[in-house]
C-alpha cells in the first residue's frame, strides 16, 4: 500500500467519526451523517481499502476513542442496539466499492446504485443486530416489523438523500484523484 492510500484510508476513518458527532438521538439508533462517508469511501477507494477504512474506525472506537455517535467509545458499545450498523459499515463500504470496481462505466447512475446497495447492506446488519440485541440481551420483545420501522423506515428518506450526495461528491473526488 502506498502512503497516499494510507492517508486516504485514514481520512475516511476520521470523516466517519466526524459524521458520528453530527447526530440526533432517535430511540435506539441515532440519526448521523456517517453513511455519507461510509458510502463515499466505497466510491473513492477500492473495496478492500474502503473496508479497511471502516475497520480502522471500528477499532478506534473499540479501544476507547470516543468516535461513535454521542461521543462514545469502548468495548461496551458492542451491547448498544445500534452497533450492528457500525459492523454494517465495513461490508457496506466493501460492497459499494466492489460495485464501482466491477462497473465499466464510472458515472452518477453507477455510483448511486452502488450507494443504495451499500446502504441496504448497512441496514441489513443494523436491523438484524437491533432486533437480536433488543430481544436476547435487553428482553424487550420487539417484533421484526418494529425493528424495520425504527431501524430503517424513519431514516430512509434522509439516507436516500445522503446516498445521492455521497455519489455526487464521490464522483467529483474520484475525477480529481484519477
What structural category characterises the helix and strand content?
A: mainly alpha
Low-confidence stretches: none
What's the helix-strand series?
A: HEEHHHHHH
Terminal Cα span: 17 Å
Global mean pLDDT: 96
Largest sheet: 2 strands, antiparallel
Strand content: under 5%
The CATH level-2 architecture is identified as: Orthogonal Bundle
How many domains? 1
Quaternary state of the chains = single chain
CATH class descriptor name:
Mainly Alpha
Task: Lay out the secondary structure.
Layout: H1 3-21, E1 23-24, E2 31-32, H2 34-44, H3 47-62, H4 83-102, H5 108-137, H6 144-153, H7 156-177
Antiparallel strand pairs: 1-2
Helix pairs in contact: 1-2, 1-3, 2-3, 2-4, 2-5, 2-7, 3-4, 4-5, 5-6, 5-7
Amino acid at each position: 500500500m502506498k502512503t497516499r492510500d494510507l492517508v486516504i484510508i485514514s481520512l475516511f476513518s476520521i470523516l466517519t467519526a466526524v459524521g458520528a458527532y453530527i447526530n440526533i438521538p432517535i430511540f435506539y439508533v441515532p440519526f448521523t451523517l456517517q453513511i455519507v462517508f461510509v458510502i463515499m469511501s466505497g466510491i473513492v477507494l477500492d473495496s478492500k481499502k474502503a473496508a479497511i477504512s471502516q475497520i480502522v474506525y471500528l477499532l478506534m472506537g473499540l479501544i476507547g476513542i470516543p468516535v461513535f455517535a454521542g461521543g462514545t467509545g469502548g468495548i461496551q458499545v458492542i451491547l448498544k442496539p445500534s452497533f450492528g450498523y457500525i459492523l454494517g459499515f465495513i461490508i457496506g463500504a466493501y460492497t459499494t466499492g466492489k460495485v464501482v470496481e466491477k462497473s465499466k462505466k464510472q458515472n452518477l447512475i453507477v455510483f448511486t446504485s452502488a450507494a443504495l446497495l451499500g446502504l441496504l447492506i448497512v441496514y441489513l446488519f443494523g436491523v438484524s443486530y437491533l432486533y437480536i440485541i433488543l430481544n436476547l440481551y435487553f428482553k424487550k420483545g420487539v417484533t421484526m416489523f418494529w425493528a424495520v420501522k425504527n431501524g430503517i423506515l424513519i431514516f430512509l428518506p434522509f439516507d436516500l438523500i445522503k446516498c445521492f450526495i455521497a455519489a455526487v461528491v464521490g464522483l467529483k473526488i474520484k475525477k480529481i484523484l484519477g
